[in-house]
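#struct-help
A.M.: can someone run this one for me? Single chain, 306 residues.
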Amino acid sequence: MSVLARDPVTHSEYVAPGVDGPVLVACDGAPVSSEALFNAGRLAMRAFGGPLQVLGICEPTAGVAAGMDMIPVPADLDEARRASMVDDLHRALSISAAGDPAWPVDVQLGSPSRLLATEARRRHASVLVMGIGRHNPLDRLFGTETTLATLRESRVPVLAVGPNFPAQPIHAVVGLDFSVASVRAARLATRLVAPNGRLTLLHVRPRFEHPSDDWQAWDADYGRSLPPLFDQVRAQLAPPAGVIVETVTVRGDPASSLLSYAQQAQCDLIAVGTQRHSFLERLVVGSVTTRVLRTTRCGVLAVPSP
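D.P.: on it. Structure tokens below:
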């Protein structure tokens, strides 16, 4: 079940992820995606402690327009497609090195993004594992845009992985702006990093500079506030023995700076908090998360704001 907690850095209340909630893996049984998704699911099970459930979403077949009339879809067509996906998923679990035939499989008819977000919340999932592949635009559940659309709806953390996602990340970077969502992202990323791995807390300061005294004073105050904020976050992470936690501050555009650091440091995972302060931001999920998901080649952990 989800519980209400208070963030010690921001002092804001938020809904914590489900304790021992299931790890929900969105998959359609395609070979190109299944292995990476099942590996990520196993990683999440070890990190968060819940059982794994596989969920496939089969979009209903649209009717075909013929002039002014609509040709109806045969009543049993979608059910046959749903049953076929069930078979594909069971087959993928049986032949995948990372799969387990004992994992429960469920396939539902509906809109993938909306139904995945709804099911993750209904089941009190600790995390929703999805794809971030770009090789096959027809692979619905392993595509970046479907993942972004799900994030617009989701109130559950989403772990998006590509085909080369490792069994356990060695180096993860967290885009930390000290919001509730970004601090939660840091907490969850700490659990995913391998023993003797490294977690980098990256804060991007505004790059705009002005020679006025007011700007210089504000910038100096900003700089002095960062060390105690970093210390508060580090104190609550409780990383496993051997995991190194480091802090980095750079100036620039948040998305570009985060992506540049992740690429140069050869990170396996980027963790970000997603903010939703307005209708427009809910539509785009936040520019940083959108750019990261569309650009990076490593895994992404996106944690929604309360």
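A.M.: thanks! Residues 1-63+76-165 form a domain with the Rossmann fold fold (CATH 3.40.50.620).
D.P.: also worth noting: The chain has a mean pLDDT of 84.
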